[in-house]
What we know:
This protein is α+β, with helices and mostly antiparallel strands. The chain has four helices and five strands; from the N terminus they run H-E-E-H-H-H-E-E-E. Helix content is 45%, strand content 15%. The model has no long low-confidence stretch (mean pLDDT 81).
Amino acid sequence: MRTTGMDMMRAALDAATTRPSGEAFRSPCQRDQGGGCRHQTGFSMVEILVSLVVLAVGLLGLAAAQSSGMKASHSAYLRSQASQYAYDILDRMRANREAARAGAYDLDPEAPAPVCNPSSYDLEDCDRAEWLADVSNLPAGTGAITYDAATQFVTVFVRWNDERAGGSATTSLTLETQL
């Protein structure tokens, strides 16, 4: 008798489904309504599609959380920069305390920006011009400085646009300290 490839496959299948005791393996069986045996053979297409939808919703949620985290981080960065600029002008004023107490550092946001002229180097004008140039690095950044001679308090006001980071159109930082 001649052995064909099909006979060899049947023999291998019988060997794989037979226990060492010679008894055949039985697959788990779920009974249907008629009492017959119904075998579960794998995942259905609906189960796969549902799992893909759940995965997609989860990934979209992760992307939204990442986006809002980046916006908050950028807003915090802008606030940190504004704080640094406010402390910078205060340090400059403390270094030139007499001129600051005379009101030479007062800066009105509606007034024309001071110009630093290298030929007649005026320290107060150069400090204010450099400070306004730094503040302008913020989105739509502007600043103001006022000194109250009666209380000797100086108020530094920095304003910028924080819409891109999820904040309001005009965000401001006010720093008040005694000079």
